[in-house]
Structure formats: C-alpha cells, structure tokens
Amino acid sequence: MNSFQFLVALTASFGGLLFGYEVGVMNVVLVMDAFRIFFKFHHWNGDGLDEKGQPTKDVANMMYRDLKEADNKATLEGLITSSFVLGALCGALMATYLGEKYGRQRTIMIGACIFTCGAVIQGLSARSWVMIAIGRLITGLSIGCNGVLCPTYISEVAPAKIRGTLSSCYQLMTTFGIIVAAVINSIVWYYTNVKPEGLGKTRSNIWEEVSNFEWRFALLFQVVPGLGLALLMCFLPKSPRWLCSKDRDEEAVEVLAKLNATSTSDELVQSELKAIQEDVAATRAAGSSSFGELFSPVIRRRTFITFLMQLFQQWTGINVIMYYQSQIYNEIGFTKFMSTVVLPIINNFVNFISTFPGMWGIERLGRKTLLVIGSLMMMVFHISTWAFSTQTSKGKTWQYLAVASIFLMVFSFAWTWGPVPWVYQAEVFPLRVRVKGSAVGTVSNFLNNWIIAFVGPALMKAWSTKTFLLFAAACLLAWVYSQFYVIECKGVSIDEMDAKMAGKA
C-alpha cells in the first residue's frame, strides 16, 4: 500500500467524520439551556441550582439554571433527533441511482455540499421545531448517501489484502467526529451554562429566550467539515471500476497506475484492469441489475445477512448512549458538569481508541468472529450497567461502576459491531449489485437508527436504566444471528462467496 492509496481512503472516510460530528453535537446541544428554552422543551422562571444540581435560594451558591421540563419534551426531542435519521434513510435510497449514474467520487462531493446547506438551516433556525427538523433531514440526506458510497468507494480503490482495514476507516472517522463535537461543544456549554446571567432574578415570561449563541455556533460549525470534504474530494480520482463500467478504460488505467504508484504498462496495473474489465463484461452480459436481483438464489443470503447485521448494530443500543449520554449520566446521579463535559468526552475517546483494535482484528480474526465476541460482551455490560444503576443511592462507587460498564459496552461495540457491518456490506456483493446491496444495508441501519432515536427519550423516561435490559436481550439475539447465520468473508473472493451462499437463505 502506498501513501496515495492511504490518502484517498482517508479523505473518503471524512464522510464518517460528518456523521460523527452530527451524532456528537446533538448530545451536547440537547442539554444546552438556550436550546431547551428556545424550542420550548423547558421553561425558566429565574430559579437556580447549586453545584450538585440541587435547588437553592442562595444566589451566591447558584451554578446552573433550574429549568422545568415541558410535557411534550420527550416527543419534541425525539422528532428533532430522529429527523436526521429519516433523511439518512432517504439518502441511502438515492445513493444507488446517483452513485451509478454520476460516480462515487462526484456524488460524495455533492453530498458534502448538501450537508453544508443543512447545517446552515439548522444553525439559523427560527423558533419552531419544524425548521431545525428540516435542516437535520437535509444533513441526513447527505449522510445516508455518503454512508453507502464512502465505504464502497474505499473498497474499490483499496488493495485486496487490506481492503477491510481501510474500509473500517469510515467507522474510525465517525468516532473521531464524535470526539471533535464533544470537545468543542462541551467547552461552549461550560462557558455559557455555568453561572449564566439572570440567576435568582424572577422572570415575568418563563418562555423568554436567553442568548442562543451556544447552540447556533455548535450547529453552524458543521459547515467546516462539510466544505472541507467537498474540497478534498475534488482532488480524488474517480473509481476505476465505475470508469470501466462507463467505457472509460483509458482513464481507469491511469487511476490504477496512480493508485499503485507505477506506470500504466506495469504488470500489476494491467492485471487489475483486466480483472475489472472481465467483471464489467460479465455484468453487462447478464443485463442491468435491479433490486429484485438481491433476492435471487445466489445473492439473497447476502442481502438478508447485510440487512440484519445493520439492524442488530442499532439495537445494541449504541446510539441511545451516543445521542442521550449526558442525560443518562445525569439519571445515574452525576452533576451537570460531569454529565455534560467530563464523562461524554471520556466515553467518546474510548469509542475512538477502541476502533483501532477493530481495524487490526477485522483482517486477523475475521468479520464473523468479531461479531460473535462483540455481541456477548455488550450483553454482559448492558446487564451490569442496569444492575449497578439500581444501587447508585448507596454511594458514588456504584455510580462509577455503572459508568464504567457503559464505557466497556462502548468499547465492546467500537471494535466489533462498529466497523464490521460497513466493511461486510461493501465487499460481500458482486460488482453488478454492489451499490444496491450496500444501500439495503445502509437503509436498514438508518431505519432502525430512526426508530431508536425517536423512541429513545420516551424509553428512558418510562423505563429509566431498565432500558439497558432491552438492549441486552437484543445483543443476545445478535449473538445467535452471528454464530449461526453469518458467513465469514475474510479473504474470500466473490466467486467463492457465490459457492458458499448460493441457495442458502
């Protein structure tokens, strides 16, 4: 592997950074006082809380605003959060057509521009949940589309031996984006929500706005990575496989030569070009592909595996933790500062660092092995989180044990179920239906992500930490699925995959 191949894969992975920032930013924005008051999740009469989050009448000891929750808070929170995922679902469906017609590279670049427009709408939102939901839906369109095409693009430019490792760069950049969002916006939260103006002063209008700089800045900052990805993609080559499918073989061979840092006449380049041309020719001989082909005897098991893999990835509960972790820590009994700043940053750092073992293990241990190990680990830590959370009234030791279990659950996810579904769906399908097959997996991911994001606040309000038992049960089902239904694809060619899966649905 040469430096240009790595640069291409890393740049394309920035689509994951956009996804990660969007996930990370909402965790902090949802607990910003100005955001809560602006969209009428809460109201404020001027009362304050002390450092431990307890109501106080002593102005000198007041640290935070004492907001009162509105009756429709959980519903509005679910609508705003899940609108992004609904957009991503639609974007994943659009990716199939756009990726085949205009190419992976150009569509990713357009998607980044769409993301930027959505970020501007969010940051400039009027005082209605409708406008910010539309902005989040638009950014979701971009993330859904690029969620299909970025891993596909990487898999088509990466050397076969390290295809899985480089494809998992998308997940790595997603976790990095979450860290960036957490650090930047936690600093903003600290300087705008700790000892704000007006504490202890009675407000005649409890719905009156406070300064909205904090959340508008947090959401508008998304413009930076959005424009950055669009600009960087201008310098990346088109997929050689897509070029060959459009009879642009001369361009394809030049791209292959550049990717391999050699001349167009090099034996390796000519060998790769021949393999791609044969694949394209076989695809054309069989006629144009359709979604119905994904359910043919040769391919349908791959389709079912991919759909269920992304379904179980979401029902591990990872995004309830990532979207609402500050509220979870607060429920366990930690102070506002710990819940909003310290613990989310630590958790997001654990998420990022834990992706590296996954990049190592995905090629050495195999995709299936990681899924089996990960589902069992997550089940154990979900149960321990619930068990420890029931004892938090007995002292801080139990609170820290509950949080440690959450961190260990995130670790278990990040190196197994985090990267594997994206790598699996990008490599398991034949070229003829690769984008369509990848789209099915991504649609499954975002459909279930939308369900989780929408019902998450209501679940946490109704069940509190018992919600972790629901996710533990889902992890048990994920283990059964991984152990007995998933086919290992590490080091397996497409032809061998056909033989393994033909007629097995």
Walk me through the structure.
With 505 residues, the protein is mainly alpha-helical. The chain contains 23 helices and five strands. It has a three-stranded antiparallel beta sheet with strand order 3-2-4, with no helix packed on it. Strands 1-5 form a two-stranded antiparallel ribbon. A hairpin with a 5-residue loop joins strand 2 and strand 3. Helix 4 (73-102) packs antiparallel against helix 5 (104-123) and helix 5 packs antiparallel against helix 10 (223-233). The longest helix is centred in the N-terminal third of the chain and has 30 residues, at 73-102. The radius of gyration is 24 Å and the shape is globular. The two termini are 36 Å apart. The mean pLDDT is 89.
Largest sheet: 3 strands, antiparallel
Strand order of the largest sheet: 3-2-4
Label the overall shape: globular
Count of DSSP H/I helices: 23
- From N to C, what is the helix and strand string? HHHEEEEEHHHHHHHHHHHHHHHHHHHH
Output mean pLDDT.
89
CA radius of gyration = 24 Å
Features:
505 residues, mainly alpha, 3-stranded antiparallel sheet, two-stranded antiparallel sheet
Summarize this, please?
The chain is mainly alpha-helical. It has helices at 3-12, 14-29, 33-38, 73-102, 104-123, 129-157, 163-167, 169-193, 213-220, 223-233, 240-245, 249-259, 267-285, 300-315, 318-332, 336-353, 355-364, 367-389, 396-414, 420-427, 434-463, 467-484, 494-501, and strands at residues 42-43, 48-49, 55-56, 64-65, 68-69. A 3-stranded antiparallel beta sheet has the order 3-2-4, with no helix packed on it. It has a two-stranded antiparallel ribbon with strand order 1-5.
